[in-house]
Amino acid sequence: MTDYFNWVGQGMDDFRPTGIDDADGLIPVNPAIEAYMRNLVIRTDHPVLFEMEELARQENFPIVNRLVGVFLKTQASMINAKRVFEFGSGFGYSAYWFAKAIGHDGRVICSDSDAANRQRAKKYLSAAELWQCVEFHVGLAQDVFEQTDGLFDICYNDVDKSAYPEIWQIAKHRIRSGGLYIADNVLWHGRVAVKNYQDEIDVSTAAIVEHNQMIFNDPDFDVFINPIRDGVMVARKK
User: Fold this and answer.
1) How many CB atoms within 10 Å of residue 95?
2) pLDDT of the residue at 223
3) Distance CA 233, CA 4 (A)
4) Which CATH number describes the domain made up of 2-237?
5) First vs last Cα of the chain: how many Å apart?
6) How far apart are CA 174 and CA 154, in angstroms?
7) Most CB contacts within 10 A, which of 27, 86, 170, 197?
8) From CA 159, how far away is CA 63, in angstroms rounded?
9) For the chain, domain boundaries
10) Phi and psi, residue 14, nearest 5°
11) How many Cα neighbours within 13 Å face the side chain of 145?
């Protein structure tokens, strides 16, 4: 919480849209507001969740954090999701939230290129009695997806950002009607809104800008971006 409260006391003028030419200070949601919302969801949960968050803090490992985790769980619950595919699973933090939503009769298919992350996920999700809901594959997410049959209630994208357009192109055809495509980091530290970043040779930013535009232009999906943390896109297949 320290990083958020370091911003408390700054006025709204400090968060004016200066990002036309510079991403510094271009924060989608006032950090004090995000801190308030995060405090609302910091409640008693399975102890393993706190262990996962502490590991992420110690190793500076990118996870979606508690606020986005609750959002993912809510989205999955609202459409009664039973089959989820994760492009990029890390050590299972987002899978924890999806597994909580789908129940023991559901399945979260995870993918990650690091075998050590699978072992970590197994340890944590087993402790939370959620491992039986998970099918965790080690390998390139695109390859794992191509080797998995059927439609999904949710396709969740959190791979290397340069691959975002490719993931969208292969995932959108395998989401059932009423299902969701969810992508993390779609605001990319505000760089998507900054002219200089878009003009420079910045592969990740350019890929996310392309990804976002493609989805908002797709007539088969209703789309919005939740600006919390680093931006979470939700696209519902009509």
Assistant:
1) 28
2) 98
3) 22
4) 3.40.50.150
5) 38
6) 9
7) 86
8) 12
9) 2-237
10) -70, -10
11) 27
d(C-alpha 146, C-alpha 155), whole Å: 13
Q: Which two tokens stand for residue 89?
A: 């699973």
Read off the tokens for 98: 């999806």
Report residue 133 as tokens. Answer: 């809901």
Q: Sign of the C-alpha dihedral, residues 231, 72, 145, 168? A: negative
Q: At a CB cut-off of 8 Å and minimum separation 6, what does 91 contact?
A: 52, 55, 61, 112, 117, 120, 121, 124
pLDDT in tens, 56-107: 999 999 999 999 999 999 999 999 999 999 999 999 999 999 999 999 999 9
Please report, as a single letter, which amino acid is at residue 181.
Y
- Distance between CA atoms of 17 and 175, rounded to whole angstroms? 36
**pLDDT, tens digit (0-9, with 9 covering 90-100), for 149-206:** 999 999 999 999 999 999 999 999 999 999 999 999 999 989 998 877 666 668 999 9
Please report where in the chains the tokens 């944590």 appear, as a residue: 124
- Residue carrying the six token digits 């420079």: 200
Q: What DSSP designation does 113 have?
A: S
Residue pointed to by tokens 């789908």 = 102
Q: What are phi and psi of 51, to 5 degrees?
A: -65, -40
